[in-house]
Amino acid sequence: MATGFSRLVIAGLSGDSGKTIASLSFLRALRRRGLSVSVFKKGPDYIDPAWLSAAAETDCRNLDTYMVEPDVVRRTFVVHAEKSDIAVIEGNRGLFDGRDVSGTHSTAELAKLTGTPVVLVVNAAKVTRTVAAVVKGCLVFDPDVTISGVILNRVAGRRHFRVLEGSIKDFTGLPVLGAIPNLGDDSTLIPGRHLGLVTPAEYKYDTDLWDRLLEIGEDHLDIGAMIEIARSAKPISCEVLAAVASAPANVKIGYFRDSVFTFYYPENLEALEARGAELVPVSSVEDNGLPEIDALYIGGGFPETHADELAGNRSMMESVKHAAVSGLPIYAECGGLIYLARSLRCNEKTYPMSGLFPIDLGMHPKPVGHGYTEVRVDEPNPFYPVGTAIRGHEFHYSGPIGDLQEVKSCMAVETGVGVGNTRDGLVAGNTLACYTHIHADGVKDWADSMISSAAKHAAKHTRKAAGNSGASGGFKSMAI
């Protein structure tokens, strides 16, 4: 299938170049014009996509060729982009930064894979003519990347802008598509913390934030020129696959969805629904206990910044632990692992967690694990066959206090850190918890195993209910 649609990559020379502010401002300006937008984030990330989703008023999709095969990434992009008026991809790190010297999995490689022109955001603080040299270097570094314009960030004033713009035009031939003034620390718009920006679910903002972003877009970006560059993208082809048939699974899968736990790729949840699961959102801080469900998915998030609230809701923690001990299938990632631990030490205080795993965790001032991971399943567990190779990512400041001898694990870490001692994937009964985040498009059997585990648990519960028809109503799992 070949199709043509407007699309644009907003990339940078490095992290903190201003990509996110430029992207959010551009998206608000597009929505102001009444254009439908599809939005994407290059690489593994949850926080920036949450902000991009809020600004674009639609789900942001991650495009990552390490966790997911490139052909699948391109197909995902086309399927979700072609029906919108314009598709916007925000890059990550520097344009050519990848996993190795060849720039594998970089924003540049994604731009080539999707045939998308690039607008380069440059931090112009304390520099003038040298910017032109850097941009010129990007142009010749990989001629197959179509760099179509430059946005200048942190411009000090009119004189600063004139020198920057003249140098870039004279020495690169590229148009300057915007000049965002020096706003100081970007946290004046959206506060940051140890994993990046705060999440939209936690940020107490009103329409003033969107008004300010729209003002930046309208006053400091050439929106019309950026749209024209997006329209210049050539048709892109991809393989068309038949949709996954919805099976009559008749299972309910709960998932923590609140201000604490927000790290879920849309494809993970959609993969469960596509296979017939009913998703049931659960609040870890407001609900008193689990509803009637056949499995539980606990994603990542910020339990460390909500430790007081989580620890204060003992009824939910006891409900989760009881359900796990009673055989409920539970899949937990990163923040979910913390929730299932015995305790969490942060800010010189120890908070009790649910206590399913006899492991104590502590927060560190620097990341304990950060980046792509590769693990191999080497022990039995509820969800993956032994021998399964999994590519994912991790970003956690927490790590174990003491040894892990009391805890059973099922994954050998070949790349990354995991829970420590080259291990990840803690196992207790039908529960698996790991620091590694996975993407359902890259781990094909994950959704099927979740559905299968939930169906087995539901059948077991049904058989027990039939054998105890005289018992009182309510959800009661068999203890193991």
What does this protein look like?
- The protein is α/β, with parallel strands linked by helices and 480 residues long.
- The chain has helices spanning 19-32, 47-56, 70-81, 107-114, 130-141, 158-172, 207-220, 223-231, 266-274, 307-312, 314-325, 335-340, 445-467; strands at 2-3, 7-12, 37-42, 60-63, 86-90, 118-123, 147-155, 176-181, 192-193, 196-197, 236-237, 251-256, 261-263, 277-282, 295-298, 300-301, 330-333, 343-346, 349-352, 360-363, 369-377, 389-396, 398-401, 408-415, 423-428, 431-434.
- The chain folds into two domains: 2-237, Rossmann fold (3-Layer(aba) Sandwich), CATH 3.40.50; 251-467, Class I glutamine amidotransferase (GATase) domain (Rossmann fold, 3-Layer(aba) Sandwich).
- The chain has 13 helices and 26 strands.
- The strands form six sheets. A nine-stranded mixed sheet has the order 14-12-15-17-26-25-24-21-22. Strands 4-3-5-2-6-7-8 form a seven-stranded parallel sheet, sandwiched between helices. Strands 19-18-20-23 form a four-stranded mixed sheet.
- Residues 470-480 have low confidence and may be disordered.
What would the keywords be for this entry?
Rossmann fold, 13 helices, 480 residues, 31% helix, 2 domains, alpha/beta, single chain, 7-stranded parallel sheet, 9-stranded mixed sheet
